[in-house]
Amino acid sequence: MRKTTSLAVWEAGHAAGYANNGRAWEGVAGECGRLHPDKTRVVDVRNDKHGFEFLGYRFAQGRRWPRKKSLSRFKDRVRDLTKRTNGHSLEVIIGRVNSLLRGWYGYFKHAYKTVFDDVDKWVRMRLRSILRRRAGRKGRARGLDHHRWTNSFFAAKGLFTLRRAYDAELQSR
């Protein structure tokens, strides 16, 4: 029998009842083993601003976001693929970034929708910085770079966008 090391229980409207009813927790403990008192708590994620973190997500105020650590690790991996001195063609770089974006979206597709816009903007900024460097300019992409290399430019190059994937998934439901 495999032991569970992570568990989250959702019960609509009954969080206070679980906090006062030790037998409910005993039932969970009987199935999963001992519950660590410092790691076990009852949270109403609809109202609680603090929420909790679980399996790469942050749950608070009735919404899900990627944890800061998950987002930071993702950005570090994108940074590795999009160094300004990268000698690969833009198409090769976009292909590698697309693979990472698809995998990340596959796991975090249940996150709150604004996350996808922010990540898409950040990835395009990284790609614009590469193009800016290749054009002989220094620094981060900004200002007129958004007119030189528009979002449609990257779409034509085949860049996977999280927001477009999210919208397509909503349409298919």
The DSSP helix count reads: 8
Overall outline: elongated
Query: What value does the average pLDDT take?
Result: 81
User: Could you give the count of β-strands?
Assistant: 3
Detail the poorly predicted runs.
15-21
Taken together, the total number of domains comes to 2
- Secondary structure: helix percent: 40-55%
Largest sheet properties: 3 strands, antiparallel
Describe this structure in words.
53% of the residues lie in helices and 6% in strands. With 173 residues, the chain is mostly helical. The protein folds into 2 domains: 15-64, no CATH class; 67-172, no CATH class.
Outline the secondary-structure elements.
Blueprint: H1 15-20, H2 22-32, E1 52-54, E2 57-60, E3 63-66, H3 68-81, H4 90-108, H5 114-134, H6 145-148, H7 151-156, H8 162-172
Antiparallel strand pairs: 1-2, 2-3
Helix pairs in contact: 3-4
Q: In brief, what are we looking at here?
A:
Helix content is 53%, strand content 6%. A 3-stranded antiparallel beta sheet has the order 1-2-3.
Which features does this protein show?
mainly alpha, three-stranded antiparallel beta sheet, 8 helices, 173 residues
